[in-house]
Structure formats: C-alpha cells, structure tokens
Amino acid sequence: MAEQHPELPLENSPQPHGFEEDVEVRGHIIDSLILPKVLDCITNLGGSFAIKNISIGQERTDPSFALVQVRAATDHLLQTILAQIADHGAVATLASDCQVIEADIPGTFPEGFYSTTNQQTEVRLAGKWQPVADQEMDCGISVNHKGGQARCVPMTDVKVGMPIVVGHAGVRVFPLERTRQGHAFGFMNSAVSTEKPKGVVIRQIAELLYAHRKSAGKSLLVGGPAIVHTGSGELVCELIRGGYIHKLFAGNALATHDIEQSLFGTSLGVNLREGSLADAGHEHHLRAINRVRRVGSIRKAVEQGIITSGIMYECVKNGVEFLLAGSIRDDGPLPDVITDALENQRQMRLAIRDVSFCLMIATTLHSIAVGNLLPASVKVVCVDINPSTVIKLNDRGSFQTVGLVTDVEPFLRALVEEVKRLEKN
Predict the structure, then answer these.
(1) pLDDT for residue 217
(2) Average of per-residue pLDDT values in the chain
(3) In CA terms, which of 46, 58, 310, 398 is 20 to 30 Å from 32?
(4) Which of 94, 125, 144 is the last residue of a domain?
(5) Residue 192: helix, strand or coil by DSSP?
(6) Together in a domain, 204 and 321
(7) Last residue of a domain, which of 128, 143, 177?
(8) Whole-model pTM?
C-alpha cells in the first residue's frame, strides 16, 4: 500500500519563476535517495521546485511516485536543470520524441549530443519508449527509426549520416536503486575503508562466483601482475579450474610474469619460493616473452609443452577467454597483446556483453578502463592495497563498485576457501 498526498505543496521557494515544467520520478525514490538528489540538483543550479503530488510506498517492495514542478528564471536555465535531473530519472510529463541529428564528421558527435551514463536508459521513438542497447557511460546514442532501435555508440565509431540523439528531450534514465537484500553490495558500495568486515564481503563474492559458475551470466577477472608477484597465481588457477572465472582481462605484465614463473620459477627475477634473487633473474621476463614470440602465441606455447603451469596455461586448458591490453611501457610484448588502444576498447566491449559480475584485483588502469565500459547493473568488486583505485572508480561513475583495501594473497586465499566451503555444502 502507498500513502497518497495529492495536495502536498512542498516548495523550496515562495517566489514564482517565469518558466516551469512538471516532471515525474518513480521507483524506490526515497530509500535510494533519488528524490533528494533531484531536489538538490534543482536548487544547486538556481531553480526552485514544488512537489505537487507524492505517493510513498509503505513496504520495502512498494515503489513511490512524485510529481514535481520545476521552476527557473529563464528557459535556458530550465532546460539545463531538466537535462541534469533527467540523469536521476526525472522525466517530463509532456513527453516528446527524442531529437536526432545526423553525424556530419566521422568519429565526431553533433554538437549538443546526449552524453550517456552507465545506467539503464530509454529513448522515445514514434511515441514509444525503446531501451538503449549496449549501455555504457561517456557515449552517444544512435537510433534506427525503421527498426525502432537505439544503442550506445562510442565517439570513434561514429560514421557520417549516423542518426545521433541530441539534447535530453525524449530520453529517460532508470537510476540503479539501492539493493533490497541488505547485504555487502548494499551497505558498503559507496565507502572505501580498511576497516570493513572483509569476511562478509568475501563470502558474498564467493556466493556470486558460485552462482555464476553455471548460469547465463559470466564472471570477469581483471587482474594485475601483483597476483603473480605475491605468489597468488595458484589461487587464481584454482578458481579457473573450478569454473569460477569465465574471462580474464589483463596486460602484458601479468601474462609475462605468470609465464616467467612457469618457465623459471621467478617473477621479476625473484624466486617466489625462497624470496631470493635468481642469478641473471632480471633477464627472465624478457626470455619468457622471447620464447613465446618464437612459437607465435601463448596457446601454441601451451600446446607445444613450453608453458606447463600458471594462469595463462589454465586459461588455455579450460577455455577461459583472455584479452591482454598493451601499454607504452611493455617489454616485448607477448604476441597475444593488443597494442592498439582503440582496438582494445572494441574487443573489451564485445567481451563484456554477457558479463554480470566483475572482480578487479590489483590493477588501477585496467580497473578504471573496464569500469568505464560496464553498465551499472554489473556488480563490481575491486580489491587493491591502494584505496585510491576504488576511489577513482567511484569518481569516474562506477558507483556500483564494492572496494576492499587489502593484500591480494590473503584475499584470494580466503575466497578460495569460501568457494570450497560452498561446494561441500
């Protein structure tokens, strides 16, 4: 049941403004703080509001509704406010179709293009609301009027004549609401602290991995070389062999040092069992790269018995898709590394379409890059000894990220223990 307040004249300013428009906000707008965000946005931009009607859900599962009159001194300010609050799910009651302009320059949006968020979005075409496919932040929206379809398109993929949505009219966003289960992904995804109850979060991560093992959704691991340096590679191998990791995104470093460990027992020349520098160990990573380049690929090195253990070996043996994105500081690189940054983005976009859970471990640049591509509906866990990695993810808009500030090895060891416990139970 919902409590009705049709005559509730809640206003923040008694002074009338010359321009006004009514907007609707629906869903769990109170406990998810969506309505307060909308009202704060209006006042911060210099406008005012009046809540003309509000219906508040009484049960946790009941949605709420608010009809808000937005007021501004000028039409330009009103349109600015409407554009900003649209990203929080506020939709004008006098809905119109989205405005479209054809792109006139390849790789460039028209001026005034609608810039997407990572939240579920719809556009209005021929009087009907249509979902936007391939949701991703910092893109534009291309529409197909004949098919009534819309999709996110990155700037570099724009072609001349492509119909691109401009402005905010005819566009509505469905903000991700606070989880109803009250677990770790609900109460901790906005804060970064070394004092979080890590056992609770790790248990939730294990449950997600376990649930995804045989479901339609896929689990993605975004990993940095610290996984290998800390001696945690075998723990990741256990997860791969158990079917808990379906895709791996990494760079040249993780793959190189993983292969170096397989060939020489070292990582960056350090013997992982003894913690001592190996003789001429500084050459090992380059010799490992060269050995793989001589046969043409990591897969061929595995098939020919050159690589016999490690993360990359298990990926090949267990059919785990891996994508290695290069950087300017790479040695070699390995033949599987994609050195074109735009091509890496394209490959990642294709690979994440069926990903519903992402685990990021000890890699700042790769974590932020992948976070930029993921829709807000994908649960993300970022594990790093450096809290700034999680802070940057949240600042960039990947607010669904749960951050754990901890060492890699104890986290992975506890995670493997949890999934084994689930298997036994």
Answers:
(1) 83
(2) 87
(3) 46
(4) 94
(5) coil
(6) yes
(7) 177
(8) 0.81
